[in-house]
Amino acid sequence: MNQTLSWIRFTAATSALFFSLHIPEASASSNSSALVLTAGEKYTCAIREGVLLCWGENAFGQLGLGDQDSHSTPQAVTKWPAAARGAVTAVSAGRGYTCAVRNGALYCWGSNDYGQLGLGETNAKNPLFRMPELEPRTVAMPGSGAVTSVATGWRHTCAIRGGALYCWGDNANGQLGLGNSGQSPLGIPEPELEPRAVTLPGSGPVTPVTAGRAHTCAIRSGALYCWGENRYNQLGLADKASQDTPQMVALPGSGPVTAIAAGEEHTCAVRGGALYCWGDDDFGQLGPGEQIRGTALKAVKVPGSGAITSLATGRSHTCAVRGESLYCWGDNFYYGQLGLGHAGPYEALEAVALPGSGPVTSVAAGDSHTCAARGSVLYCWGRNDRGQLGIGSTTRYTTPQAVSLPGEGKVVALAIGAEGHTCVVRGGALYCWGLNDYGQLGIGADATYDDPQEIALTGRGDVGAIAAGLFHTCAVRGDALFCWGRNVFGELGQGDTAFYDGPQQVSLAGSGKINAVSTGWLHTCAIRSGTLYCWGRNDAGQLGLGNQTDYATPQSVKLPGSGTLNGVSAGGLHTCAIRGGALYCWGRNDHFQLGLGDDADRTAPQVVSSWPDRNNEAVTAVSSGYYHTCAIRGGGLYCWGASIYGQLGLGQTKQSATPQRVNLPGSGVVQSVSTNADHTCATRGGRLYCWGKNDYGQLGLGDFTYRNTPQEVKLPGSGAVTAVATGSDHTCAIRDDVLYCWGRNDFGQLGLARPLTPQRVKLP
């Protein structure tokens, strides 16, 4: 029996970044939960536990969202090629384009006027008319092994694969390091459209690499090499001649070079714990004091003690982390990108007043804005005309502002498929995992996953209601309903029986908010603007249309009575709905699951009236399982139908033809109930209780013993249990905004070993 907490998690690591940088790789990989940051010209990207988020300017599609709309809040990048799987581990934001590493493969998107995406094409002969790529595209990298880091300049890109360096894109200044200046016989710059191997002196792997506007630097075996444009001495050499092959930079001191960062026209590096900067110093970006001219290198005296752990260079400003403090210097005249509380000149280096305590784990410097992570919290400040600060506005700030990242919000919805997949909504985004043989995860493929996969839904707004059936899934986003997966009986509502492995919008009549969606085995129901619609399989009359004809498009269901329609639950082959506080059920009734006192099927809604308590209390919730049903009425729990495994919770295994009150421990009203195949769970007073079949440990009690009365499930934490969902053989619940799952796991529906007690699920 597994009694320890486990969780599904993504792994994040650092990368070489343009306008940012560059924590040594060893320190980044030591904290897989740390935010990894990169800042482009007027946009920002971050990796949070393997998920890539981008925001700000998007004129070239550099956010990777499939459009060219700017966003002032972080947006998850979800439109990856079908083969893209696993965590994002590195990202670099350039000038209008972005590249990222996911599971060892490289993807690029955005502006491609000089072939900087490495796709072997530029989409047009004239750079002025080359179309951008709005979604991540796979870069065919030479060599073998995983891509470990990537760096983007203005119009050129470099990446490391298997310890070898490759560069491509604009080469007018020799910034690719290929031994030529990229000039055609007519003197017109000729870009490299595909990755080309760069030969560096020495031996050993290259790590990391950084790219400025038109120059590049890399570390190999502790030695620093730079090449490309050099008019400001950004290469750190004895003269200002540009170089088209890597040249060793002679830094003062001893020991290996451990970190580098290239700004637009300046460069900084750390050697022996000391920081050195060189190149353009017009705004003091090389450090306080007298401006440097010529080919000199400036030693920057950063206050404090200890090693410099993070380094970032923007267009004309620089930032470094020493100890637990962040220091920035250089251009501050218009936008306050130094984070000092004002725009304009400054006297001496002073720490940026970041809220909280603890180490600053990552920093990124953009054109005129800066971002830094302290613990798990992201802060940004400076220029914000394109929303690059990610705070939901375009107001400039001269002090750090906390950025709310998707995935940090509450888990607000939970659904479990009957045969082994799980979905949740967190921070407005939908995540699914588990069995996927019919595309029910909605990821565009049929591979099964034991870790959460974010599902890309079109439209705007947060994902609201979700539902998981036998082999299909549905979700609501904005005012639109989407369904996907198996579709034998038209349960996806597309007017056909074709299977779909990605979300398809369902055409529902009317307009306005979709209040609820529920999926049965092979049928689906939804409520929109007070009207109930059902579609899919109808052999037992489970659609409530008065017939047994299957329908592949939504059909309006006429419910008796009056009042608000405020709940629907589709079971195995039956359906129940709540209207005006009364409960109506219809469909298959071979196990008395309709609660009507007999076992005859019904093809139209019938009111459930045989309650043991003769009063007028309202039904507030209903859950339809395979062969049994439970409802909350007047704050109490009632169940009826099959009970061969004790799933009614009545202390015996005899089925019941009418609702029976379940004696739940504790006090207060029953808040929620969930039924599926042969077990039931409910919450009362913030506590969770489960009963019924337990052959996979789905009751969460630490054993395989069946129970015919409610048993309290001991979840970690101290807050109230706010939601519960049951599958055929596994269960999930939410407590303190943490998701826990237990039971059967042969399809990865838990993402864990086979736990008999609740195990934490780590969501992106």
Quick rundown:
By secondary structure, the protein is an all-beta fold. The chain is 1% helix and 43% strand. The model is unreliable at 1-32 (pLDDT under 50).
Helix and strand topology:
Elements: E1 20-21, H1 25-29, E2 36-39, E3 43-48, E4 51-56, E5 71-76, E6 88-93, E7 97-102, E8 105-110, E9 133-138, E10 147-152, E11 156-161, E12 164-169, E13 192-197, E14 206-211, E15 215-220, E16 223-228, E17 243-248, E18 257-262, E19 266-271, E20 274-279, E21 298-300, E22 308-313, E23 317-322, E24 325-330, E25 360-365, E26 369-374, E27 377-382, E28 397-403, E29 411-416, E30 421-426, E31 429-434, E32 449-455, E33 463-468, E34 472-477, E35 480-485, E36 500-506, E37 514-519, E38 523-528, E39 531-536, E40 551-557, E41 565-570, E42 574-579, E43 582-587, E44 602-607, E45 619-624, E46 628-633, E47 636-641, E48 656-661, E49 670-675, E50 679-684, E51 687-692, E52 707-713, E53 721-726, E54 730-735, E55 738-743, E56 759-761
Antiparallel strand pairs: 1-25, 2-3, 3-4, 4-5, 6-7, 7-8, 8-9, 10-11, 11-12, 12-13, 14-15, 15-16, 16-17, 18-19, 19-20, 20-21, 22-23, 23-24, 25-26, 26-27, 27-28, 29-30, 30-31, 31-32, 33-34, 34-35, 35-36, 37-38, 38-39, 39-40, 41-42, 42-43, 43-44, 45-46, 46-47, 47-48, 49-50, 50-51, 51-52, 53-54, ...
